[in-house]
Amino acid sequence: MQPIERVNDFVVKFANVNGSGSASANNLFAKAVLRMGVPVAARNIFPSNIQGMPTWYEVRVVEAGWRGRRGGVDLMVAMNAETWSADVAEIEQGGYLFYDSTKPLPHSRMREDITAIGMPLTGICQEMYEDARQRQLFKNVMYVGGLAALLDMEAGVVEALLASQYGGERKAPLLEANRGAFRRGYAYAKEHLPTIGLRLARRDAVGERIFIDGNSASGLGAVYGGATVCAWYPITPSTSVAEAFQGYCRKFRVDRETGRNRYAFVQAEDELASIGMVVGAGWNGARAFTATSGPGISLMQEFIGLAYFAEIPAVLFDVQRGSPSTGMPTKTQQADVLCAAYASHGDTKHVLLFPEDPTECFEMGAQAFDLADRLQTPVFVMLDLDIGMQDWLTAPFKWDDARRLDRGKVMTAADLEAGHEFGRYLDVDGDGIPYRTYPGTHPKRGAFFTRGTSKDRHARYTEEGPAYVDNMQRLLRKFESAKSLVPAPVLEKAAQPTRAGVLWYGSTGAPMAEALAALAVRGIHLDRLRVRAFPFADSVADFVAAHEHVFVVEQNRDAQLRTLLMTECGIAPEKLVSILHYDGNPLTARYIEREIAEKATLFNVVPLKKVAG
Amino acid sequence: MTFLAKPKLHHPSLPTNALGFTRRDYEGPVSTLCAGCGHDSISAAIIQAFFELAIPPHRVAKLSGIGCSSKTPTYFLGQSHGFNSVHGRMPSVLTGANLANRDLIYLGVSGDGDSASIGIGQFAHIMRRGVNMTYIVENNGVYGLTKGQFSATADKGSKSKRGASNDDEPIDLVMLALTLGATYIARGFSGDKAQLVPLIKAAVQHQGAALIDVVSPCVAFNNHPGSTKSYDYVRAHNETVNFLDFMPRRDAITAEGPPGSVETVMLHDGGQIRVRRVDDGYDATDKVAVMAYLEAHRAKGEVVTGLLYVNESDEDLHSAQGTVARPLNALSDAELVPGAAALESVNASLR
Predict the structure, then answer these.
(1) In angstroms, rounded to a whole number, what is the distance separating the alpha carbons of residues B153 and B113?
(2) CATH architecture of A6-199
(3) Rounded distance, CA A352 to CA A537, Å?
(4) Best of B26, B109, B118, B323 to disrupt the A interface by mutation (most A CBs within 10 Å)?
(5) Which among B100, B122, B323 has the least Cβ separation from residue A273?
(6) Per CATH, the architecture of A212-394 is what?
């Protein structure tokens, strides 16, 4: 058995028990790799549980900068007896197992084709600490010390991270204790453990990039987008969007002189009330949002429809997960696409944005508020757990100070005083977007009564058929106008001319670049289109028309975006070949590569001789 | 409904209020409800109250859910923005609207189906959040638009128009609001405008969650013998605890009535409500006593009306939120967007 030998290109997986304090140690490990200038792709794989169930953290050390999971494990840090067998089985041939050797393990529980490295973590902690909780907690930092020594990680980098995490006088004892545990682990490994074939070496491959999760980025985006009202109900995996908004507001939105808040933050009694508050605030001219997941979107349906028909701006962050209510709240999926696109009863359709990483969560998170005001309609920002709750290495956030919030078509008291004609649902500009007034604007003009559809162009009550149709047709024109306002798709040509294409959206982008590079090596070249919004720009249909077949890669069972493409763009089903992944775990490049390669042969995407060769 | 169109011309001698508005400036289009509907009397009381308070109509936002009662905001305050929202969910819409602009006056109009059945959850939460508003329930114990089903406020044993008896215990929104922390709670009767108008005026001036439960007979489906929400039943069983005289800040206060029977409640803006007790033992500021009183009289089949509870505490949702004095919907870009330099410091903390 040849042990794996690699520098800056391997997968370390930590197998832990939920609630044991391992998360911060594992995060410390990932950040230390980044501080050495080497990119990582990290994934937390966790159960719906607070304490006691198995949890994993996977750090893919990847100098090449790929962002997805690779699949497979080169070094398993096995800290959970319960999952031992499965964890050991997951290690690649020639890989490494790092384990707590305080108690000797029976030979039968090992593998011959891997290298086992034991360190008596529990034993050392028993000696060092009196307190039971400390014995547990410092074991985590201690294994980071052991791994640092094994992998040639710079000890100074870890110590600097600890110093910034436990800065200040109050935390000085904590810093001392953590540093002690780290140093003890490091020294033990240097003294007792063999050298291994996996190694870190300092590079300059991280650059300006930042390490953050998409939910935090979305919350920050909402601050920059001018949101002042957040109404929400806790639901995994979206909760941290609202919490991040509140956290950033405490930093940026508290009036220095009075100490009072330039935002409101209401934890509602349920999702129905959350969206109701958002609709009320939007109607009254404040920028408002909610954050939820699939089950919440289901509960909000009636209000979403009302907001669509009454033309009220609202922003919804949908962090998609495995559904339904008793579903897989800690697993990722892109399975709310159709539910969001056509949310509610009656003829409705909605604007969806598909960020691919935390950077776009910030950008689209801010832009969503401009779009909602401009289009006077609900706008969904469609994250998923993989983007939302995982820390990603991503491009830094940017903001142009010359940018102004676009409040859309709002008639002011001065406009009304000047005698501008106001009809709430009049299509003055031919783009289907009417003017609105905020309540309380003018003593004599501009007041109107808001209701669903039983109204004419001046918001007067009517149940007349032609008035209904007139309004519905204008709403279609408005949706057409949205096409040119939403983020445009991103097109990238293959290195060689090809008759096949591939199309994807959202977090699927993470493993896609890597998969496409591997496919190109196999002689399979595909033009690429990353869809960033619904309604689809005309260039999406053009892209499909320009290719014989287009693979549509998505993370749901029913090929929901493909359905949307067929329905909205009139594309023939046989042109769109689905590549689907929906087991709840993040998509890997290996999976996409294998699936596309297999189907490429079937659809004659490449000459057969090339595949054989 | 009434088929008489309202005349467009006003009589030049119509009385005006302090703002120079006539009562007509507080009206809306003609009602489409059944002739004799209690709800129309409530609309008239609302018009009268806002006219007398001399509130600029456009500074009021009127919100409702779905149902006969929720149609009524169309028929008053035509110069106010209105929102006919979703069945049972008006409270959340009103809460959001209130968060967006704390400077407007919020009037929530709902019914017993809208508030006690489908909307009981949102009803409860808007009361406990202390949203600054006047929440009027037009309570007839019956579903009108769907033709006569019992609602959740129908009394046990009350008879439907077809003779069926209601088997379920009624939900008393007044008692519910008391336990949930509403700070102004009244019950009125649509047939007694003299009592209702001051109750509405004081509620509008109250800072915090104000509920007025108005028993409002449904002439089409719930005004027959055997119903406990009929005009006859309520007139016969009305137990009025007090009468209100609402005194805005600018008016001089003159004492009336025998000493000891008049209590003055200071409003946050300096105005006062003078409560003239009918029952000398009734203290509207003693929550425990109020509950006991209401329960005792409910057991006797009486409908207790008047200002039932008041706590002029000044606290509302905005004080709990610690929001700035200016409305959130009026804040400028500079007050909302932290800018590029701040973002760069965020970036730096994430490396």
Answers:
(1) 8
(2) 3-Layer(aba) Sandwich (3.40)
(3) 12
(4) B323
(5) B122
(6) 3-Layer(aba) Sandwich (3.40)
